[in-house]
Amino acid sequence: MTQCRRCCITTSLLPLCCRIFVVGIGFFSLCFLMTSLGGQFSAKRLGDSPFTIRTEVLGGVESRGVLRKISDMLEVILKRMDSLSKLDNTSSTDAKRLDELSSAINRFQPAGLVERIQAIAQNVSNMAVRVEQILQNSMVQDGTSSQCEVPRDPRYPECPGKVDWMRARWTSDPCYAFYGVDGSDCSFLIYLSEVEWFCPPLVWRNHSSPPTQHTHQAKPTKRQAAFRTDLSVLLDQVGTGKESLSFMKRRIRRLALQWGTAANRLDAKLGQRWRDQKKILVHVGFLTEESGDVFSPKVLKGGPLGEMVQWADILTALHVLGHNLKISMSVKELQGFLGVPPGRGSCPLTGPLPFDLIYTDYHGLQQMKQHMGLSLKKHKCHIRVIDTFGTEPAYNHEEYATLHGYRTNWGYWNLNARQYMTMFPHTPDNSFMGFVSEELNETEKRIIQQNKVNNMAVVYGKEASMWKQGKEGFLEILHGYMEVHGTVYYETQRPPEVPAFVKNHGLLPQHELQQLLRKAKLFIGFGFPYEGPAPLEAIANGCIYLQPKFSPPHSSLNHEFFRGKPTSREVFSQHPYAEQYIGRPHVMTVDYNNSLEFDTAIREIMRTKVEPYLPYEYTCEGMLERVHAYIQNQDFCAPEPPFIAANLSRQGSAGGSRMTGPLFVPLPNSTALGWASNVTAPAAWPPLSSLRLLVSQEGQSCVDACQSAGFICEPAHFRFINNKEANGMKLQVQCEVVDSEINHILPAFSVMRRECGLQREPLLFSCAGHSPKYRRLCPCRDFRRGQVALCRDCL
Question: Which of 1, 495, 513, 637 supports an S-S bond with 381, CB 3.0-4.6 Å?
């Protein structure tokens, strides 16, 4: 009976002992939290989350004492439990009292209290380990604590301010803890000197591993790019799940044969020339869910397709040229490809940028800024921004734009303006990326001409809203001569905006639209959308394109569509490229408000026969050639050496004597000056052999001045004419005063005041700038026939 009673009491005693033990652990855990951490909560710094427990230890000795007390208390509890478990002669009265105590503890516990206290105990245990680690580190660094004082080094003037910021805000982003920041000044200085670059390196640190931001890895072995004609890998990379992606993949498949033929042609043209294979990331920001992706739902409802056309062609060109390509369609993919540390983007990348080039758009650029932090500034020279309407230098320079009224929702990224890549060559300050249109062979062209319907017109306008207001007059005139067809989207019933005499086919798949254009004689624009791919496709299929003339021209000053865009460009017609670079007989631009002029144009169109025409720069080969030249020659990361004319030497002179004659000499049969053939030209792309130096009229931009002389403005050459030598007597410029300023119209001069101004900020070299008080000094260049992006010696 005695043994039985012992067994029963021991069995009933064990759960009670466990409960006492857990309650004890919880009690002392709370005591620990209140005593050792309470002061930190009460003096919480700005930016700390109320749910974040700081592991910073303010007093090593005091904290070690707390740990010893907790250890002693736990040891006492364990000894008491051990003595209870060894009871041999517990009376029935004692057992009854223990049962009552157990029942009271049960009533005291809310649901899950034991589990919560156990969790607290575990957290305290983990915290104790962490505190012990910090104390051990403090012992190791006992002689270096004084070296964690914030340095006052004139070479690092921002260091004290950055340390103050870290003290207040280091918990605002988990990425700081990822890099080892724990709230101590030492960890701040380590981070700010080794991960970022605001503080000097700490002498007591082990510097066998270079700091993150100053890592200089050996250059990887270069690999040669080889042309590809199989697009199956690219199609897999584009992905699925959105109608926009399906549209892009259908386009890639449809043009696959033409891309393959173009690759073989360009390969033969380049011969055995070495081409570096680049690691390229393409991040299509406007199609990410984070940017709202308003385009994908409208693909099958008449929405704009121009951007998706261009992105599909960019992806294909990069793949066909043989580069190592990664494609990102979400922010999560972007973070993974770039190596972004966990958090909110306040910290730099975990390593060197894994790509040579990054193609994105304004949405993607904003996402990269949000997630790359300071690394964006370091790596932005690798970025190329696909920008439909262009960004002028005055809008791109953040401080200048803010001070002089050019600040918009876009722009202000302080890139080299040539890093922006446009759909058409309308902004010479930017690079022209373009897209492709389907190219016809000679047999197809002949069949199209035979099957043309002379009195058939197709209207450029897929959305019913484009048919509203003011279209009735000229549509009635057109209807008097031609059968009018439309491709306006509708769901159940005919859009009321479309006149009854228009034969509406609804929204057509691309191949059916091509068949319609191959039959039609006329493709007519309503004035919107601006600068889309459809007019080029119509002209390539043998149509004459008729478009409205804008008087006054549309711009950000008078038209809502352009308001807020980072350009002051004036648009004189719906499709300026078609008007300027193609022109009659394929393109006619008239005043739609003048009924007689419109009527005359329709009759002329019906009399005119044209062949299908496609500019070379919009063929697959033309785009491959252009993109190849950019990738192999444009480098915005290497610093440009200062150009000092006096240091140049003359070719053929004894001992390479310094240059004393003019840099530029008159060109035959031209008002322009060219680089002197006997002067050694510095290395540049485009080469200086293409440079043509001109002076604009007052109030005229270099874009217009070069264009009027049959050239293209070349911003890369500004640095070679931004000097006194360029303002020589050959240009009849007499400078009594020469100033260097920050102004986007410089270099320029005033005839009246005999003042010459040179540019002090290279980012503000601008082809687009103009002023009624100044004549611009303009660096023009020649260009290849059908390929305005490249000079004659550029390939």
Answer: 637
Tell me the C-alpha distance between 567 and 575, whole Å: 17
CA distance 181 to 341: 14
**Residue 693 falls in which region: left (phi positive, over 0), alpha (psi -120 to 50) or beta:** beta
**Do you know the residue count of the chain?**
795
Integer distance in angstroms from the first to the last C-alpha of the chain?
A: 106
- Phi, psi angle pair for 633, to nearest 5°: -120, -30
CA distance 453 to 483: 10
Question: What is the 8-class DSSP label of residue 582?
Answer: I
Cα torsion 627, 630, 631, 637: sign: negative
Nearest to 205 by CA among 181, 186, 231, 177: 186
Rounded to 5°, the CA angle 11-15-16 comes to 105
C-alpha pair distances (Å), 559 with each of 101, 425, 556, 574: 84, 21, 6, 13
Query: Contact, 642 vs 630, CB < 8 A?
Result: no
Amino acid at 434: G
Q: What is the mean pLDDT of residues 323-328?
A: 98
3-state secondary structure 421-477: EECCCCCCCCEECCCCCCCCCHHHHHHHHHHCCCCEEEEECCCHHHHCCCCHHHHHH
The Cα–Cα gap between 660 and 653 comes to 12
Torsion angle in degrees (nearest 10) through CA of 418, 420, 423, 429? -40
What confidence category does residue 611 fall into, taking pLDDT thresholds of 50, 70 and 90? very high
Cα distances from 159 to residues 150, 174, 194, 681, 694, in angstroms, run: 8, 21, 13, 43, 48
Amino acid at 318: L
| Alpha-carbon torsion angle 668, 671, 673, 677, nearest 10 | 0
pLDDT confidence of 49, banded at 50, 70, 90?
A: very low
* Beta pairing partners, 328: 283
Strands 522-525, 483-486: parallel, antiparallel or unpaired by DSSP? unpaired
Residue 32: Cβ-neighbour burial (10 angstroms; 0-12, 13-18, 19+): buried
440-462: pLDDT as tens digits: 999 999 999 999 999 999 999 99
- In tens, the pLDDT along 643-660 reads 877 667 666 554 555 555
Cβ neighbours of residue 40 closer than 8 Å, sequence gap 6 or more: 54, 56, 58
Comparing 257 with 116, the larger pLDDT belongs to 257
Q: Return all residues near 411 (Cβ < 8 A) that are at least 6 apart.
A: 391, 395, 396, 401, 566
Give CA–CA dist 202/185, Å, rounded.
12
Distance between CA atoms of 191 and 185, rounded to whole angstroms?
A: 10
Mean pLDDT of 430-435: 98
| Per-residue three-class SS string for 712-758 | EECHHHHHHHCCHHHCCHHHCCCCCEEEEECCCCCCEEECCCCEEEE
pLDDT of residue 343: 85
Examine the pLDDT at 22 and tell me if it is beyond 50. no
Residue found under tokens 């466990």: 18
Region 442-613: CATH code: 3.40.50
CA dist 791 to 101, 626, 782, Å? 95, 11, 5
Please indicate whether residue 630 or residue 149 has the higher confidence score (pLDDT): 630
Q: What is the pLDDT of residues 239-295, one digit of tens each?
A: 999 999 999 999 999 999 999 999 999 999 999 899 999 999 999 999 999 999 888
Q: Domain-by-domain residue ranges, the chain?
A: 149-204, 231-432, 442-613, 664-781
Contact 156, 165 (CB under 8 A): no
Within 10 A of 225 (CB to CB), how many other CB atoms are there? 18
**Alpha carbon of residue 785 to chain centroid:** 31
Tens of pLDDT, residue by residue over 730-758, are 556 677 888 999 999 999 998 888 888 99
